Amino acid sequence: MARILVVEDNERIAYGLRNNLEIDGHTVEVAADGRAGLEAALAGDPELIVLDLMLPEMDGYRVLRSLRDRGVEVPVLILTAKGEEADKVMGFRLGADDYVTKPFSVLELLGRVSAILRRAGRNDEPAATESFGDIEIRVEHRAVLRGGVEVHLTPKEFDLLLALVRKRGAVASRHWLMTEVWGYGVAVASRTVDTHIAELRRKLEEDPAEPRYILTAHRRGYRLRQAPPKARTTF
């Protein structure tokens, strides 16, 4: 999860951004004008700013310039008008990290957000070796062992497992998994995610029908419980 500041004066767009980013597991703050956005960025220590360029009080260019002049290096994803090449160029010159052109798709935006956070070196990347239960994941070798015996996973199953690991127990929405594993530019039915999850459970869980680690978050997605569930105590 990341702390994301959305600076957008259009209430409908701001609501959509907040809703989809929160579904993806992020913590989101919204500012409705440039001056409020600058104050929130300086006070709140966000890990990513989604910044519209056309804002009241202070436009996005001035917000971005003010942040960089103060030495604030938080990644910034700018929202530009359709076909305005000059907006993109100016944004990059002022220190933007990426842009999305309005109107944009949810999957495109989530894909750009994930890519920026990865480039920023967030600490949610898998270690060389990850484990849960009797499962050991050797990331560099793309190998998975269960009880010391190697389990064959398809490339997509392995990528899906790593995507769950990166969430560190937080819920991974189907949209996020589709973006991370299949690519946000590819139209993939959410049923594909469910099918691959079922295969991971079949190969890695002791009882796939009652999974202990690869869990379903009802209507939200999936999460990986890396610590074993506590045994119930009866008196």
Topology readout:
Elements: E1 3-7, H1 11-23, E2 27-31, H2 34-44, E3 48-52, H3 60-69, E4 76-80, H4 85-93, E5 98-101, H5 106-119, E6 129-132, E7 135-138, E8 143-146, E9 149-151, H6 155-166, E10 172-173, H7 174-182, H8 190-204, E11 214-217, E12 221-224
Helix pairs in contact: 2-3, 5-7, 6-7, 6-8
Overview of this protein structure:
The chain has 235 residues and is of the alpha/beta class. Helix content is 40%, strand content 21%. The protein has eight helices and twelve strands. The protein has helices at residues 11-23, 34-44, 60-69, 85-93, 106-119, 155-166, 174-182, 190-204; strands spanning 3-7, 27-31, 48-52, 76-80, 98-101, 129-132, 135-138, 143-146, 149-151, 172-173, 214-217, 221-224. The strands form three sheets. A five-stranded parallel beta sheet has the order 2-1-3-4-5, with helices on both faces. It has a four-stranded antiparallel beta sheet with strand order 6-7-8-9, with no helix packed on it. The chain has a three-stranded antiparallel beta sheet with strand order 10-12-11.
Largest beta sheet: strand ordering: 2-1-3-4-5
At CATH level 3, the topology of the largest domain is: Rossmann fold
- Give start-end ranges of low-pLDDT stretches: 231-235
Under CATH at level 1, the class of the largest domain stands as: Alpha Beta
The major β-sheet equals:
5 strands, parallel
Instruction: Specify the number of helices.
Output: 8
| Architecture per CATH nomenclature, i.e. the level-2 architecture of the largest domain | 3-Layer(aba) Sandwich
Could you say which overall geometry the principal axes of the C-alpha atoms support?
elongated
